[in-house]
């Protein structure tokens, strides 16, 4: 059985790690390379960097960060934000990223997923999704860093994206993001039933029990968290020990 993964997430803005609640009210929490090295030494399994305000001008900043991180950490890491073409993805992979996440650009042009997976392999293509529950049930997918409701049904989008070559899904619940109230188990279970690629649960981790719960109750293969790790509320080691005690396969 594949071991479950603990994945700290570093939201990056202007070359700094930031954290917010429900995608707003951002505060600076440090240097991304220093944070990456600390997490690597603490025993995390992977890292995710999301440039949340990625623009063309910011690309050089991000590439420089990726090169510096690749020199410091020796675990897989994913980079996302502003990836709009196979050429953009190629730049990130050449700089040292193992995987690249696409979100808004893939919604605007789903064939971007096919192009990237054919060029670099589906294992390099992570589909990042920001989703929110609708009043009528189900979930809609949001674009532009969670600012724009696309009106697209979540389950339809994941099926289409995986058929085009997305090799992994990073699924963020906007309702849960930053709230520390636990992962959106209902949404994760629905997506797990819809497709058979690895799914990283994101949004809502507030304590170790939430991470144990998401692995016990859904088929998520990774749990992503930010605040609880950034602010030292729990450690990677404590989290993994609790998972092992619950009978979850994990790399100690």
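Q: What amino acid sequence fits the structure above?
A:
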């Amino acid at each position: 059985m594949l071991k479950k993964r603990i994945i700290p997430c570093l939201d990056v803005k202007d070359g700094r790690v930031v954290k917010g609640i429900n995608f707003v009210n951002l505060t600076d929490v440090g240097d991304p390379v220093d944070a990456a090295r600390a997490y690597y030494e603490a025993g995390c399994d992977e890292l995710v960097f999301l440039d949340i305000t990625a623009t063309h001008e910011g690309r050089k900043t991000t590439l420089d960060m990726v090169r510096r991180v690749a020199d410091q950490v020796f675990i897989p890491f994913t980079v996302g934000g502003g990836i709009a073409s196979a050429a953009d993805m190629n730049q990130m992979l050449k700089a040292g990223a193992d995987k690249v996440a696409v979100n808004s650009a893939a919604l605007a042009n789903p064939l971007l997923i096919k192009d990237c997976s054919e060029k670099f392999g589906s294992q390099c293509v992570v589909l990042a999704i920001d989703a929110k529950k609708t009043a009528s049930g189900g979930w809609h997918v949001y674009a532009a860093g969670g600012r724009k409701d696309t009106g697209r049904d979540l389950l339809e989008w994941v099926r289409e994206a995986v058929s085009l070559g997305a090799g992994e899904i990073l699924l963020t619940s906007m309702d849960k993001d930053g709230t520390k109230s636990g992962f959106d188990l209902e949404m994760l279970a629905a997506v797990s039933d819809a497709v058979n690629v690895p799914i990283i649960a994101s949004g809502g981790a507030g304590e170790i029990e939430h991470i144990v719960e998401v692995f016990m109750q859904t088929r998520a293969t990774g749990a992503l968290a930010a605040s609880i790790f950034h602010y030292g509320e729990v450690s990677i080691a404590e989290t993994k020990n609790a998972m092992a005690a619950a009978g979850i396969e994990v790399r100690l």
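Q: And what stands out in the fold?
A: The chain has a mean pLDDT of 93.
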